[in-house]
Amino acid sequence: MNRLFSLLALVALLTALVPSSGPVLAQTGSPDYGASVFLLGNPETTARDIALVKKANLNWIKIAVPWRSIEPSCKNCIDWVDLDRVVLAASQAGLKILARVDHQPDWARTTKVTNGPPDDIFDYADFVSVMAKRYREGSPKGTIQAIQVWNEPNLDREWGGAMINRDQAAQYMHMLKETYTLVKAEDPTKIVVSAGLSPTGTSDGTAQPDDVYLSWLYEFGLSKYADAIGVHGAGFSSPEAEIGSNPATPAPTHSFAYFRRVEQLREIMVLNGDAGKQVWLLEFGWTTDKVNPEYAWFAVTPEQQGDYIVRAYQYAKTNWSGWIGPMFVWNIADPAWSPDVEQYWWSITNPDGTTRPAFDALSKARAAGGVLP
């Protein structure tokens, strides 16, 4: 009997020592290596693009999963065929998958928009949890290791045109909480990542700065409902450049434009007692776009793009090791893109699958004996 009481006392003590802020999961390579790819809807180029990821010795892919393409016409009217194809192909190639889920079906909203939350948040959370169960660890259909809950909710265009403010941040946290809870009930091993926030200094209601928005999310319980914190990294100046050091852009109002903005977002995590979690850099890169004025001011040459991407990983390995998780290069090009598409200029490959200098530099750096082992 005494031994039983002693055991119960020990269990109680250990339970008391567990942080109340939720589980600390998602301990991956630091950094780990990944890229965004466009495999859904592209069966003809899926094998080609998976081969490119493998050639670059990357471990992760990030795929966009439009909710409307899987559950298009009504609730529980689900067509898994294309996603089954992609998940199985990537899993068989030994790649880990982060799935970003957004873009609601028309049936889920009274007001039709390109991208916005459903009228009933449960509908989104329920769909994501069913997806998590289908592609759980060990599933014969393949495995999705991590799920990103929505994308850039600090922009009105990603939240149905709503005013972006503190109340709206609470709405996103409701979505994250519901999704996290249902996903964990189906597959406790699944890594749930909060939405990557758009690097922006705009605060007029059409958007809110990523640091301000992240602080709001912590007020509403972010630490309890995410296994990793998603951020995006802009590509202004060199990856090592101190914030405000480049005279081409004013400081501090444009601090969001620097790669090292990630460090400022990390400080917010630490201040909120969330230092035990990893940051996942869900999109980062440098554009070569000399065409569009909104991007041309910080565009680099194709050779600089490759050099900066490699140096960004090196900087992270030296300075962020331990708390940085997967870093996803934006992007392996969608085969449908043409030069009039803004994303085309961030790509490290061409839409036809040929490589650009950035891909070649990254692949060389990741090869045996390279600078990114």
Secondary structure: number of strands: 8
CATH class: Alpha Beta
In terms of per-residue confidence, which ranges show pLDDT below 50 for 5 or more consecutive residues?
1-21
Cα radius of gyration in angstroms: 21 Å
Mean pLDDT: 92
Order of helices and strands: HEHEHHEHEHEHEHEHHEH
Strand percentage: 5-15%
Structure report:
It contains eleven helices and eight strands. The protein has helices at residues 2-17, 46-55, 67-70, 81-92, 121-134, 166-186, 210-219, 261-271, 293-296, 302-319, 357-366; strands at 32-36, 60-66, 96-102, 146-149, 191-194, 228-233, 278-284, 324-329. An eight-stranded parallel sheet has the order 5-4-3-2-1-8-7-6. α5 (121-134) packs parallel to α6, α7 runs parallel beside α8 (261-271) and α10 (302-319) packs parallel to α11 (357-366).
Question: What's this entry about, in short?
Answer:
This protein has 373 residues and is α/β, with parallel strands linked by helices.
Give the tags.
alpha/beta; 373 residues; 8 strands; TIM Barrel; 8-stranded parallel β-sheet; 11 helices
Detail the topology: elements first, then pairings.
Elements: H1 2-17, E1 32-36, H2 46-55, E2 60-66, H3 67-70, H4 81-92, E3 96-102, H5 121-134, E4 146-149, H6 166-186, E5 191-194, H7 210-219, E6 228-233, H8 261-271, E7 278-284, H9 293-296, H10 302-319, E8 324-329, H11 357-366
Parallel strand pairs: 1-2, 1-8, 2-3, 3-4, 4-5, 6-7, 7-8
